[in-house]
Amino acid sequence: MKRNKYSIILTGIVISLMGCNDAKYDTVDSMVYIKESKTQAYIAQKVPIRSADLPVYFTPCAGQAVPEDVKVQVAINEAVLEAYNQRNGTDYVLLPQEGYDVENNTVTIKQGKLDAQGVKVTFKPMTEEMKKSGRNYALPVSIATEGSIKTLKGADMMIYIMDPLKTISVPVINRNNLLKMQMRQDYELKEWSVEFRISIDKLGKEIGKWNNQALFAAFAPAGKTGEIYTRFGDTTTEGNRLQAKNQDSQMNTNMLFNTDTWYHLAFVNDGTKLTIYVNGVKDSEKTMKGIVTNLGKNKFSFGNPDDRQYLVANVKVSELRFWTKAITPTQILNNMFNVNPESDGLEAYWRLDEGEGNEFRDYTGHGNLCTSESDTRWIKNIIADNKPDKDVENVE
């Protein structure tokens, strides 16, 4: 098959269900597998979906020249996707048929050859309905052979994860305009997770400089103890180092942050340790006491109302989420810019993408209210990506 100039070889994030282990067989050379898997089992690869059709190729191949023609059948295999979701705690939905086209359902590895003709999968732009659904889509493909030469299990399948470009609007939060939440209930949690994306315009670089710039904060109801408190800077740390407080303890990131740059931040307490992720990558972790975190339904905010004077910066915020479970590294990495509102354990999900006003919808349907304190300034036409402001803002 002749590949035109628009074809690409994807080199995106590869995620393995089995820790990127090779498929465990002693006879790889005598088996057929997907060449792009590099014999790794159950890999997933992100596909950058944009405004035009995107052709992607994968190649059924054998470990050694085949002694006879080998027919290879190509299929969309939803069972593969179900297994991936179960193993990784994800909730990908099968890409609708109108979202893709498979050119060759049957290809042949010719006698004496290693590779079959490349299989072309064309991914189409996402519909507005798909974009607004909040679902994350994936396309699982698998291959099977006829005759005596079998496929290498685990390396005979691949999952393509849709990675659409989003253009968003975001609110600007500061000491005069914090976010306040009214949750549907109080919480007693052994596990929890918090995620959000931010770009902040002022951070101190010296120890104690512009410290205690609060971000997400939640505190215990009267008569109980507990807090989730995230902030930049402390009296004993640099103002551009992130800190999290929980269970009478606190921890700092290894990373020092830049101003005017978008980051995805995730804080996960799995009952024994607290872990901070930056842009989907684990930055730091700390062993915790393992006690219950109590949070009051009217004690949630972004920015701390009791210490608002410390927030000297303007903070752009997006994709604010509160979970009543510990989410997985795979969930964090794959859902930085969007998450299924129906995900298990997702208690509140404010996209903060209204573009106007000071009321923000909870997309879970749980009715957790979020409002800003005053007239909110909105920044529009931002590409949702973890890059400096200058690279993603003022997009036409």
Task: Describe what you observe in this structure.
The chain is mainly beta. The chain folds into two domains: 14-164, Immunoglobulin-like (Sandwich), CATH 2.60.40.1740; 167-392, Jelly Rolls. Helix content is 7%, strand content 42%. The chain has four helices and 30 strands. It has helices at 78-88, 128-133, 329-334, 389-392, and strands spanning 14-16, 32-34, 43-49, 54-58, 60-62, 70-76, 93-94, 100-102, 106-109, 119-123, 137-145, 157-164, 167-173, 179-182, 187-189, 192-200, 213-219, 227-234, 237-246, 249-256, 263-269, 273-278, 281-287, 293-295, 300-302, 315-323, 346-350, 359-360, 369-372, 378-383. Strands 13, 16, 21, 22, 23, 26, 27 and 30 form an eight-stranded antiparallel β-sheet that branches. Strands 20-19-18-17-25-14-29-28 form an eight-stranded antiparallel β-sheet, with no helix packed on it. The longest helix has 11 residues, at 78-88. Mean pLDDT is 90; it is low at 1-26.
The tally of beta strands, per DSSP, is 30
Enumerate the spans where pLDDT stays under 50 for 5 or more consecutive residues.
1-26
Beta-strand percent range: 35-45%
CATH-level-2 architecture of the largest domain: Sandwich
In total, the number of domains comes to: 2
Q: What is the CA-based Rg, rounded?
A: 24 Å
Average of the residue pLDDT scores: 90
Can you count the helices? Answer: 4
- Which bin fits the share of residues in helices? under 10%
State the shape.
elongated
Largest sheet: 8 strands, antiparallel
